[in-house]
């Protein structure tokens, strides 16, 4: 019975955290055909557990375990979290989903190499869900001399300038080789200052590309040697800051019955207020019975605002990038660990924090490491920041569970605004 | 009763590994006055447990716990092990003693800062023994424009060129501020190609400096605000490659009844054969009832040869430096993890190795990290190498305990010579 095989495969690690025994029995005995594809294998199942206003508290079951949302995905661009953080560390700091970049992995070590090694999960030794972006964003932000055509994009590698072609089919093929849990559709992310006419045409092409992504993924998932035959596909809403284009696009892609829907093309230069305005406008038009992902966002405050507007998934390089520069998050806003006032400060970054840095090391020691350019300083700050984000998401979920998210959000924002603790 | 206090202080962490209950009772009840100073505090106690030829298997009790020898000390120059390795990691990989550099810590963050923070143990959050070098070696190898006088050395910082004076008293004061378990005497380390006349005069001055170190440490240890009033002093034998100067110097310093004796000025450019010849000549003239430390040595083979010649303590930057360059130690010699042949190799660096890298990650993944310049690659290789050294020392101790060190050494050297495993 394929269900038992699938559940059994993940049971040793995932059962305690994600499955209760009654839930498992429910799956196996009571709904034997629910969420089964024609291949008899469990598909993703999104269960909305609670709402507060537009905020959603849900869980999303995947072949690599269940994701409790709202969730922050920890970014490991080329299959490693920058700052000497490993997947073992990710388990320790409560990471649910790891995010990797398709374009970077295609360039190095190569998605075919990763496939030969059994896929990204085996390569990184990470058993929980992985989301891969489509490469589209990197093609538009990093590549040299790109040329967009109906079939896809011709561009030059940002590393050595060699010519690459990527279209919807290629992006799906690469992500299939990586074997991620969730693949993102290949889209164009137009500039936030692009004119209305350009955005309109771009979004229409993105819709056509999405249909091709869906067809190609279905084909890839049915091949005998595909690593993850249950790979999921999220579509991406675009439309820059034009609410009507956004809404029309949301309506179009919602018809395609995808596994989840992302809001792309935000956090690319527009103000926070513009971002919130677009979310207010478009999220209600995305399917409520599917996960909603706000791409590349953001600060702790952005996340709280995003949750309030119905977002389930977030990702951002801020916590790791800031950590590498000695900027750490606390309940009272960010701290610059290079600051001279920490020279003799024996307290942890944040009193009471359960991260590996705060449990063992002082501000004075971390400042010394950073000033002496010892890698350990970066590692400790990145671990702290990722833990801070993961822990905040846990608190957000608890608050939603208990119907007090509005209060929690207010308390959090006031804390951040209070500024660095003395 | 001060003894019980002292033992009690370290009991929770050290007792299981280092003390047996009968041994503790023996200390407390049967020899109540042994190893007590006039301040009623336990002093270092070196117990020779077994010999095999000239090889020694011993334990060395200190105020920060007992060291089982032969031991390899893991180098954390400025209070951190390079390669994003923390003291928590050191516990995990079986490190007994951490070694830090006096000169580097004097320059940054400053030994007075470290003292205000409660000493190096608190600063790094490391409860086991720490050995600090005297700064002498760095003064002679790193400093600009140095001028050696009877009172000490005037030189310029290798970082910003500012003028520093360091003599025996200054070195002892800095090490006292750091509060290390074992302080090293301030000596001159003459070039291995220095002429006989220079070496003779230098060694005589080093002897005079040693007497001043001893006096100054006694004074510092008796001050009320000294962090570690039980700080130990090891003297350093010098004499370059002149056996008679070495032996004469060993005889002189042996009279001073120090806590341990080091062989310095080796592994500075002479051949391995010369180093072994000097060890053969001089170690028999150092006290057998005190620990013997071969400074800055070396390769796994050097260590095996050193143990055979009666060495207890070793330290070297090789495992961490090589690790940062992707060179890892195995039972079959070193491997260069950048090598293309590891691209698709799903095996760990070494099959059966219990280090954090080998337990979780493949050669293919580590190679990818190194090539992509991800810090995690360095961290994993450094962890592997330090574990390799610590684990080899454990095997050496087991072999000595069981009277089979000669066989173990032969087996090990043959393994290294066999070359990289396929």
From TrEMBL, chains A, B:
<comment type="pathway">
    <text>tRNA modification; tRNA-queuosine biosynthesis.</text>
</comment>
<feature type="domain" description="tRNA-guanine(15) transglycosylase-like">
    <location>
        <begin position="55"/>
        <end position="414"/>
    </location>
</feature>
<keyword id="KW-0808">Transferase</keyword>
<comment type="function">
    <text>Catalyzes the base-exchange of a guanine (G) residue with the queuine precursor 7-aminomethyl-7-deazaguanine (PreQ1) at position 34 (anticodon wobble position) in tRNAs with GU(N) anticodons (tRNA-Asp, -Asn, -His and -Tyr). Catalysis occurs through a double-displacement mechanism. The nucleophile active site attacks the C1' of nucleotide 34 to detach the guanine base from the RNA, forming a covalent enzyme-RNA intermediate. The proton acceptor active site deprotonates the incoming PreQ1, allowing a nucleophilic attack on the C1' of the ribose to form the product.</text>
</comment>
<dbReference type="InterPro" id="IPR036511">
    <property type="entry name" value="TGT-like_sf"/>
</dbReference>
<keyword id="KW-0671">Queuosine biosynthesis</keyword>
<dbReference type="InterPro" id="IPR002616">
    <property type="entry name" value="tRNA_ribo_trans-like"/>
</dbReference>
<keyword id="KW-0328">Glycosyltransferase</keyword>
<comment type="similarity">
    <text>Belongs to the queuine tRNA-ribosyltransferase family.</text>
</comment>
<feature type="binding site">
    <location>
        <position position="187"/>
    </location>
    <ligand>
        <name>substrate</name>
    </ligand>
</feature>
<keyword id="KW-0862">Zinc</keyword>
<comment type="subunit">
    <text>Homodimer. Within each dimer, one monomer is responsible for RNA recognition and catalysis, while the other monomer binds to the replacement base PreQ1.</text>
</comment>
<protein>
    <recommendedName>
        <fullName>Queuine tRNA-ribosyltransferase</fullName>
        <ecNumber>2.4.2.29</ecNumber>
    </recommendedName>
</protein>
<feature type="binding site">
    <location>
        <position position="238"/>
    </location>
    <ligand>
        <name>substrate</name>
    </ligand>
</feature>
<feature type="binding site">
    <location>
        <position position="358"/>
    </location>
    <ligand>
        <name>Zn(2+)</name>
    </ligand>
</feature>
<keyword id="KW-0819">tRNA processing</keyword>
<feature type="binding site">
    <location>
        <position position="265"/>
    </location>
    <ligand>
        <name>substrate</name>
    </ligand>
</feature>
<dbReference type="GO" id="GO:0008479">
    <property type="term" value="F:tRNA-guanosine(34) queuine transglycosylase activity"/>
</dbReference>
<dbReference type="GO" id="GO:0046872">
    <property type="term" value="F:metal ion binding"/>
</dbReference>
<dbReference type="Pfam" id="PF01702">
    <property type="entry name" value="TGT"/>
</dbReference>
<dbReference type="InterPro" id="IPR004803">
    <property type="entry name" value="TGT"/>
</dbReference>
<keyword id="KW-0479">Metal-binding</keyword>
<feature type="binding site">
    <location>
        <position position="355"/>
    </location>
    <ligand>
        <name>Zn(2+)</name>
    </ligand>
</feature>
<feature type="active site" description="Nucleophile">
    <location>
        <position position="315"/>
    </location>
</feature>
<feature type="binding site">
    <location>
        <begin position="133"/>
        <end position="137"/>
    </location>
    <ligand>
        <name>substrate</name>
    </ligand>
</feature>
<dbReference type="InterPro" id="IPR050076">
    <property type="entry name" value="ArchSynthase1/Queuine_TRR"/>
</dbReference>
<feature type="binding site">
    <location>
        <position position="384"/>
    </location>
    <ligand>
        <name>Zn(2+)</name>
    </ligand>
</feature>
<feature type="binding site">
    <location>
        <position position="353"/>
    </location>
    <ligand>
        <name>Zn(2+)</name>
    </ligand>
</feature>
<dbReference type="GO" id="GO:0008616">
    <property type="term" value="P:tRNA queuosine(34) biosynthetic process"/>
</dbReference>
<feature type="active site" description="Proton acceptor">
    <location>
        <position position="133"/>
    </location>
</feature>
<feature type="region of interest" description="RNA binding">
    <location>
        <begin position="296"/>
        <end position="302"/>
    </location>
</feature>
<dbReference type="GO" id="GO:0005829">
    <property type="term" value="C:cytosol"/>
</dbReference>
């Amino acid at each position: 019975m394929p269900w038992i095989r699938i559940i059994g495969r993940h049971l040793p690690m995932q059962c305690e955290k994600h499955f209760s025994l009654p839930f498992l029995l429910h799956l196996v005995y009571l709904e034997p055909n629910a969420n089964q594809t024609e291949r008899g294998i469990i598909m993703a199942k999104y269960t909305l557990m609670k709402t507060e206003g537009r905020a959603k508290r849900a869980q999303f079951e995947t072949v690599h375990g269940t994701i409790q949302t709202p969730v922050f995905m920890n970014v490991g661009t080329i299959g490693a979290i920058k700052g000497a953080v490993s997947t073992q560390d990710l388990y320790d700091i409560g990471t649910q989903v790891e995010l990797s970049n398709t374009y970077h992995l295609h360039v190095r070590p190569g998605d075919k190499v990763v496939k030969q090694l059994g896929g990204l999960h085996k390569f990184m030794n990470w058993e929980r869900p992985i989301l891969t972006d489509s490469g589209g964003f990197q093609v538009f932000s990093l590549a040299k001399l790109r040329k967009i055509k109906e079939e896809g994009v011709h561009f030059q590698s940002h590393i050595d300038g060699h010519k690459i072609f990527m279209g919807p089919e290629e992006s799906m093929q690469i992500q299939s080789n990586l074997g991620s849990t969730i693949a993102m559709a290949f889209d164009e992310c137009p500039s936030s200052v692009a004119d209305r006419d350009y955005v309109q045409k771009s979004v229409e092409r993105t819709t056509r590309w999405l249909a091709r992504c869906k067809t190609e993924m279905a084909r890839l998932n049915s091949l005998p040697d595909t690593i993850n035959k249950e790979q999921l596909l999220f579509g991406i809403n675009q439309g820059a800051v034009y609410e009507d284009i956004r809404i029309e696009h949301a309506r179009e892609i919602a018809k395609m019955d995808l596994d989840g829907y992302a809001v792309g093309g935000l956090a690319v230069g527009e103000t926070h207020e513009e971002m919130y305005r677009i979310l207010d406008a478009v999220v209600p038009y995305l399917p409520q019975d599917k996960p909603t992902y706000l791409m590349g966002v953001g600060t702790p405050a952005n996340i709280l605002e995003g949750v309030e507007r119905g977002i389930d998934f977030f990702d951002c390089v801020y916590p790791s990038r800031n950590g590498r520069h000695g900027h750490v998050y606390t309940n009272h806003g960010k701290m610059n660990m290079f600051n001279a006032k920490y020279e003799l400060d024996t307290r942890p970054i944040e009193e009471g924090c359960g991260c590996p840095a705060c449990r063992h090391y002082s501000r004075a020691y971390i400042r010394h490491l950073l000033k002496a350019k010892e890698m350990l300083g970066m590692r400790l700050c990145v671990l702290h920041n990722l833990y801070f984000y993961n822990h905040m998401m846990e608190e957000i979920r608890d608050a939603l569970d208990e119907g007090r998210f509005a209060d929690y959000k207010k308390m959090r924002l006031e804390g951040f605004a209070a500024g660095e603790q003395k």
